[in-house]
Amino acid sequence: MKKKLLIVESPAKIKTIKKFLGNDFKIMSTIGHIKDLPKKDLGVTINGSIEIDYVVMNDKDKVIADICRAASTSDQIFLAPDPDREGEIIAWHIGQEIERVIKDKDKIKRITFNEITKPAILEAIANPFEIDIKKVSAQQARRVLDRWVGYEVSPILWKKLKKGLSAGRVQSVALRMICEREEAILNFKPEEYWSVTGDFKHPSGKIIAPLTHISKKKIDLKNKEQTDKVVKEIKKNDFAIADIKDKKRSKNPLPPFMTSTLQQAAFNKLGFTVKKTMTLAQKLYEGMSLGDPSTPVALITYMRTDSKRVSDTALKQVRSYVSKHFDKNYVPSKANVYTKGGKKTQDAHEAIRPIDVNITPSLVKQHLTRDAARLYELIWKRFVACQMTPAQYAQRQVVIQGGKYTFKATGSTLIFDGFLKVYKAEDQSDKDNQKVVLPGNIKIKDSVDLAKITPKQHFTQPPPKYSEGSLVKEMEKEGIGRPSTYAAILNTIETRKYVIRDKKKRFTPTELGFAVTNMLKENLPKIMDIKFTALMEEDLDLIAKGKMTRDDLLREFYGAFKKDLEKFLGEDGKKKKAIMTDVECPECKEHKLAVRFGKTGEFLGCAGFPECKYTCNFERYEDGKIRCVETEGPKELEEKCPKCDSNLREVIGKFGPFIACSGYPDCKYIKKNIASFKCPLDKTGDVVEKKWRGGSLWGCSNYPKCKFAIFGDIEEIECPKCKKYPFLVKKVNAKGEVTLLCYDKACGYKEKK
What we know:
CATH topology of the largest domain: Topoisomerase I, domain 2
Distance between the termini: 58 Å
Number of strands: 33
CATH architecture of the largest domain: Orthogonal Bundle
Radius of gyration: 32 Å
Number of domains: 5
Shape: globular
CATH class of the largest domain: Mainly Alpha
Helix content: 25-40%
């Protein structure tokens, strides 16, 4: 029997694929990338050509050795990492390692599949190909560009602002977009305007209509005086129906999801972060248990795509499903086809869709986690709807005229639900379904009585802060980065404390974020230019298509970049740059205060330091001005220290408030939150709350001997189902909803608070 080796990128796929292939196949995983640029060196050398120094990543020596050992005794080797540029370079790297241990290089072939189904995998194995070196080159170009910007710009930021900062070719442009939106909000000057609405009586019913035109010109009422004058004149007129327009309007379904639109919809409808959406989508793609853990089922196609294309097989299946479960009126005469998405689209894969439309959301709901089931339902409904007929609305517009004043009322009634049928009650919130009922028995020239006139004051609103969903939409529109990288980018700018989120999960740049952005805009204008970054993405696509070489792109970029870098570092490269404000130092009254960045965060310090050592915390108010904020000192408590009998006090530390002895540094006692029960693993240690950079956790006091830990919070309530543990794990989602779960996953108890 021939021995065949199939190598995938993620170990989660192994079980799903194994059930499709016979015993002559061995399936192994690279567990992601196996090689990368070195951590401590640049790893890129420009000589006649551009040389890239790859090193084996941490803990991957054994992975490579095991795969090579299996490859040495195999008759055929199929490299099957993901069907994108990252997957291509993983295949290239592991292929290079395998070539060292086998004589016949023709044994090694590349295969890809967009869905993990038996037909797709068997077809891929039957049609192998060589590694696409153009795709490899495009990935290398992206990685080198990102390394140059990150590796060479970040150290300058450390010297000029503070240690631990980072810059990124796409990351810094995304941050710029957030900062510029915040500046637009701070600089926004609201303008007053007024609207006027009339309530008209007709024998057949009431008509509520806004004033739209005066003397055939669109209304432009700026203040109360102007509006009051118009209202007074309106009351003097007699009104009649001047025109009635009846028409039908169609609303077409949206196209199936691609990566960016899935991220936006999951954020807007489910409250999922981009990172959470991609993590769940990865699991749905790789396969999840639908009852039998030994045979996971892949539920969706590949989730990293910018294509709206759907295979003929999938189109036939979904049209058959709609015909069977709805009605022939819901099936269009021919399949709905959606455009690829513009010149930036790579179209390497299909749109994101369910692999089998007959696996409905109700079928998977009982087997998947709540969030995985909700994401699957979102994808399933969008796909089914995209191959249904449009919704039909009867629309009526009534024009009411009185002298030079024109009022218009528009009503819309759903007369055929079409694709909305698949959404049922969910889409009742759709604005098109909010019926504005107009009387049916009216005709032109009918008189109407003005029963009420209502003027209303309004103010123009500033542009909204970016949320994850709206930022992803804008980045996609501008061609910045790729949807597959958005999760990492958003995570980085938040981790670096360049931005914070408000209660509505919208981004607000910190002073550090503003400082980094302004410094990079001033000194490295090219890499901070949105259009330049978008053009770079197009150039990477050209490399993948073989229309541009990797080295030509990199040499052209680095030539200009190096000059900007040298200028940026300058003679004062090691001097920290203060961000000056117009706030006078209240202590010396000779210098202005400057924003500085320390280990514990941002603060204001006198520009006359070290002669004047005044510092204070600060806030930036809605008008954009910075003001000092007095901070309370440690609050002394009545409770005594158990070690030295001094009073305890509440102190604000690096990771938040804590209670410690007021006798510090002589007494270093810190009060700990201790649960009322002993560690459930070793039965002897206390369960103690600990603070760390990533949040908080409850762990055993006997650590590291005992590794018991719960990341997050707990509630000391015995599990009502299994009664095994005297506590429940407390989880809070992005919307602030609290869920209590049993620590024992086998129990599965869960309740919402």
